[in-house]
Amino acid sequence: MTEEPKVSAKARLDELLERVRAIASTLPDVVWSVAVPSHKIIYVSPAAEAVFGKTDEQMSKSFSEWSDLLHPDDRGRVLEKWEHATHGAPFEAEYRIVTPQGGMRWIQTKGRCATDADGDVVRIDGMARDVTERREHEERISHLTRIRSVLSGINSIIVRVREREDLLRETCRIAVEQGGFGMVWIGLLDAGGREVKVAAHHGFAPDVPGELKLPAGGSTELQDRAGCRAILDGIPVIVNDLARVHPHNELRRLAVKRGYRSVIALPLIESGATAGVMIMYAKEIDFFNADEVKLLSELAGDISLALEHIGIEERLKFLANYDPLTGLPNRALMHERLTQRLAAARQKQVHTAVAVADVKRFRLVNETFGRHAGDRVLRELAQRLRAHGPESLELARVSPDSFALVLTGTRDAADIATTLERCVGGALAAPFLIDGEEIRIAMTTGVAVFPPDGDDAEVLFRNAEAALKRAKRAGDRILFYQPEMNARVAETLILENRLRRAVQEEQFVLHYQPKISAVSGRITGLEALIRWLDPGAGLVPPGKFIPVLEETGMILDVGTWAIRKALIESRNWRLTRGGPLRIAVNVSAIQLRQRDFVDTVKRSIDGLGIAATHLDLELTESMVMEDIEENVRKLQAVRDMGVNVAVDDFGTGYSSLAYLAKLPVNALKIDRTFVDTMTRNPHSMTLVSTIISLAHALDLKVIAEGVESEEQAKLLRLLKCDELQGYLFSKPLAPGEVQDFLMSRGGGTQVESWIA
Ligand code: C2E
Ligand code: CA
Ligand code: CA
């Protein structure tokens, strides 16, 4: 009898446990119990199969049956919590699992620790619940909230933004910053309707996105791109798992690499036609569902409406500011732009010319060939004026048959006249071919110049028109507002014409100035200096005509002529003693700037039977520095031919030493002004001495020009200058005088006195 209560107690316990198991097995949640620290599974209720996708038997095998299911992104966090729980912390977590069937589920779990008498954790008991549905619902809500905030953000900018670029840029920014989309871009269809150019983007930097090309003829692979299809079909296109589809383009590849999984392409419609596409990337798979698409379509609709509105405003603005026939600014816009230019010109102290050019008897063109032909002439004339004008030309149509031309940075009246002549004359040179008819027109131009002829747009315009009126009356092609300017232009134009004839009739001659070795006193070479033998005025020095030759481009022919002439003439001359006679020729910046400069030099030497080493080219410091990289290349090519190069007028420019070392040159010519002042001015003296030692350090020869006195020569010799040139030794000599000079002075005896 004494055993009786014991047996019945165990039986009661078993029965109790059975009852608990029975209750647990009816619950939809998993009830579990795990021993600590062994991690032996004591109990898992049968609901495991529905929640975890594994039977309670499977789950009971080991702890890892559960931990293996944890989603990689949540595993670390959950196991850390578990670790804390084994030391007594409550175990509460929401996490994702990947079931053996491959599905993703959200699990909510809660556990409680059981402790022994010492307070050590021996067991954790708890439950686990499948909360996938609730989580998805919450996420959906948060997606929609995100999109709604984008929608309201964008609607608020739509009302205040007036420019297309601002609208698109802000849209992308808000979608990223408030919508959390990560990467968003908007592409606009080009005029041809085949290419979508990225107009705005956010979240892509520093990778700049590329472009979409629409398939020309139904290529399915291309059609597959969400963006293309959205544009072609005019409906939103969604890809809800990017990782599973072929990445068709760079943008998509980039998106996948950054962890984006869903994309939506929304067409933007302007005035009833597809104008572009907005593409948004989200990190979540299946982000875009019916509700999201509905909201986003609404958003695209709002943007489309805003684009349409901006489009209308742009067209209105265009009509108010531009001439619809030629597309040129009209008088009002010209006025505005001229005012802006004048403000800048006033600050920078530069000249600005305002010209009004009027088509002569344009009425006749309309009457003879019809208005339609007249319109086409004007349109083409506008294009030609632009094409023949300088880059800075501001062009406008200011009346039915007149154009305004604004030039900035012009030097003087002659410069303005030449530029206008090139622009207007060039535009009218060929007849206009309209419907098989050759139409010739002429223009009259009136010019006003800022600052002398007026301080604001209004006055300058008025004065240019006054000059135009006078020009029309006088039958002049071009007339300045100020009579003196016309006189100056006329003078330059006359000179220009005479020079043109001089080039044709070869009225130029070269004079030669000897260079003397500072050490031996012997003649080392000659510098060719050009003069113009003007039939009317006699010998004209180069300072008077070289600038005009340069402005008109005639310097190119004359420069080539000079090199060839100098080499040919020098063939007749012999030194009685000493080394070879070198001929130096000056080169203009215009020549050096030519793309075929090197070839031209080569052609000038070719066929003369003279070695290139006899030729020195003299280039001024400032022109070499103008486009240093390109000039280094050209000069190196010239050097490779054997030609020597000297930097002329050295010290007047602003060469940096770093560049000087890079230049492929043989010699520096110290500018005359330093030689002139060195005996009086200690500063010049220091400069000359520095140039010489610097040049020697760089292995360059130094030539001093303009040496007029014994004192200068003596100093220069002391400073170890290599060669001397100047009136002290000889003025530039006419070709007929050169040989005598070489004979008398080249022998050595008389030269000795120069080195004494
Ligand atoms: P540059 O190359 O500096 O030439 C030196 C100028 O100094 C020459 O003037 C020469 O006559 C003058 N001169 C020589 N020794 C003395 C002297 O002791 N004292 C003084 N006060 N002057 C002296 P020029 O012949 O009038 O030439 C002036 C400039 O014209 C040259 O300066 C050169 O830049 C340019 N030039 C001359 N011939 C040509 C040419 O064929 N082509 C190009 N592009 N320019 C040339
Ligand atoms: Ca020179
Ligand atoms: Ca010089």
Report the span from N to C terminus.
Answer: 151 Å
Helix content range: 40-55%
Bound molecules: ligand C2E, calcium ion
Based on Cα principal axes, name the global outline.
elongated
Count of individual helical segments:
29
Largest β sheet strand count, sense and barrel closure: 8 strands, mixed, barrel
What is the radius of gyration?
Answer: 44 Å
In round numbers, the mean pLDDT is 88
Q: Poorly predicted ranges (pLDDT <50, ≥5 residues)?
A: 747-756
Query: How much β-strand is present in the residues?
Result: 15-25%
Number of strands: 27
Structural class: alpha+beta
- State the strand order across the main sheet: 19-20-22-23-24-25-26-27
In short:
The protein is elongated.
Describe this structure in words.
A hairpin with a 5-residue loop joins strand 4 (104-115) and strand 5. With 756 residues, this protein is an alpha+beta fold. It is built from 29 helices and 27 strands. It is 48% helix and 23% strand. The chain has an eight-stranded mixed beta barrel, surrounded by four helices. The protein has a six-stranded antiparallel β-sheet with strand order 8-7-6-11-10-9, with helices on both faces. Mean pLDDT is 88; it is low at 747-756. Bound molecules: ligand C2E and calcium ion (2 copies). Ligand C2E binds next to strand 20, helix 18, helix 19 and strand 24.
